[in-house]
Amino acid sequence: xxxxxxLALFDKFEKSSAVEMKFSGDGNSLELRxxxxxxxxxxxxxxxxxxxxxxxxxxxxxxxxxxxPAPHAPAASSAPGAELIKSPIVGxxxxxxxxxxxxxxxxxxxISKGQKLCIIEAMxxxxxxxxxxxxxxxxxxxxxxxMVEFDQPIFEVKKV
Amino acid sequence: xxxxxxxxxxxxxxxxxxxxxRELGIETVAVYSTADKDALHARLADVAVCIGPxxxxxxxxxxxxxxxxxxxxxxxxxxxxxxxLSENADxxxxxxxxxxxxxxxxxxxxxxxxxxxVARETAKRYGLPITPGSPGPIxxxxxxxxxxxxxxxxVIIKAASGxxxxxxxxxxxxxxxxxxxxxxxxxxxxxxADGTVFIEKYLQNPRHVELQVIADGKxxxxxxGERDCSVQKNHQKLIEESPSPGVTPEMRKKMxxxxxxxxxxxxxxxxxxxxxxxxxEEFFFMEVNARIQVEHPVSEFVTGTDLIREQxxxxxxxxxxxxxxxxxxxxxxxxxxxxxxxxxxxxxxxVPGGPGVRFDSFLYAGATVxxxxxxxxxxxxxxxxxxxxxxARLVRALDELKIEGVPVNISIQRQILTNPxxxxxxxxxxxYAQLETSLEPGKKENAx
Lengths: 160, 448
Prior knowledge:
The complex is a heterodimer of chains A (160) and B (448).
Chain A: H1 3-15, E1 20-25, E2 28-33, H2 35-38, E3 44-48, E4 50-51, E5 59-60, E6 82-86, E7 91-94, E8 110-111, E9 116-122, E10 125-131, E11 135-140, E12 147-148, E13 153-159
Parallel strand pairs in A: 3-10
Antiparallel strand pairs in A: 1-2, 4-6, 6-13, 7-9, 7-12, 8-11, 9-10, 11-13
Chain B: E1 4-7, H1 11-24, E2 27-33, H2 40-44, E3 47-52, H3 63-72, E4 77-79, H4 89-97, E5 101-102, H5 107-114, H6 116-125, H7 141-151, E6 155-159, E7 169-171, H8 177-192, E8 197-201, E9 207-216, E10 221-233, E11 236-242, H9 249-265, E12 269-279, E13 282-289, H10 296-303, H11 307-315, E14 332-339, E15 344-345, E16 348-350, E17 357-361, E18 368-369, E19 376-384, H12 387-400, E20 402-404, H13 410-417, H14 420-424, H15 431-435
Parallel strand pairs in B: 1-2, 1-4, 2-3, 4-5
Antiparallel strand pairs in B: 6-7, 6-8, 9-10, 9-12, 10-11, 11-14, 12-13, 14-19, 15-18, 16-20, 17-19
Helix pairs in contact in B: 4-5, 12-13
């Protein structure tokens, strides 16, 4: 890769809203990450409080366009004894710390109090959501990379 | 033209912006707090996103939540509305940094106009009169007396870093200067950690007059007539009208020329308002509001223009649909703000109609008026050929407006509008205080 291409890539990345970029080709590989997004080893954390009540859903009165917030199934009926863990902020939902890392939470997995459940990215800040109590993941209500609203249920869990 | 725009606001202004966007073929993204999940703006927009809890600081004032939502929903522009972040230069910068169009003037222009002293100096440079006063700080009686005599009594001593009435003293004669300088300076020091004070001429019962401006960012400036907003309760406007009963054609021309000069030179882009204090035939620059204003509909009526449309167009770099040099003012328009006196749920709503009547509101039967936000729930605006006819129309429309479940100020507004002093057109910003004791909140004017 020549210097011009490299600089052009840097520039492209700098001007984009992406937080991470990987490039491989011509026997080279390059990985760019935004400092502010991954700066601290301990990202901003939110304790996930259990929440009851109906889910607040993105209301789209028209068929969603390509850039619309990802439609999600309103988790209206949660199983008895189940708790909903809702998002404390609006942002992008990530199941893992980076694309190549394993997801924090899987269905059936036991998560202890204080353990990370997911990442919610807002303005290139990676905010970790931590469990407030020991639980088992019953359902994951969003897909990786979906937009999440404030107060929107992300996980259905069982307290243990 | 853009495809989609985020409205970083709530209530009637968000509804107002959605309406124009729909006419322009722009899709809207509304944001709402948990307290507003059934709010009209969230129901009318093409997409609605919950961005935070009821507290504004974590929802409508949350820059990360707003930017994230705008980017994730594929918006190309952000309209800040009024209040909240509408004059926040840092928010404007973040919007631009995210690659979005800011429906407002450049952040640098907002910053400059937001600084009282700089704004005054700039206005003066472009030929607008400012209230006479001391060029700099005043330290003692010896410095104060000549300045006060030159301004003419009464004068007001003001804290340089002040606001909200603290460190302010009105002085009527030489002998009272020394003591009041000391008190003002002590108050200023205690409140703002800066005891610096200066002296200005004190205008008694002035009128509050402002010009509506639309500018294209390339020096093109349209002056859309003036508004008189002298009926105010604790600096909160209650009734606005256009034209002003206290502005002569000569004054209007002088104000407009100065404003054209100022906004043109700043390469101002978007909607803005320049405010003046008016005493007799004299007027003095007060400040510029670098955004659209609540009372814009009276200017829309007299100019026959959709100001939100023009504001959006110029900020998108599109040509205005109006000719800045051929603005015609027709008839008289008056607006009465409808404010909730307590929160609650609307059980019944009857909206007035007929020619020249407009009701901008977020209310519907079943709507909630939340305790978390501004008390204004609507604006009743009328238009007719002259002031007397417009007043008759507004009183008639107020009588038709029925809101149940939430107590509102309809009766108080009716009492002001039918008051002989208000009717005469000869009043200033002191009018409300003058009438206050005689106003009865629950008075039934037309009990039949």
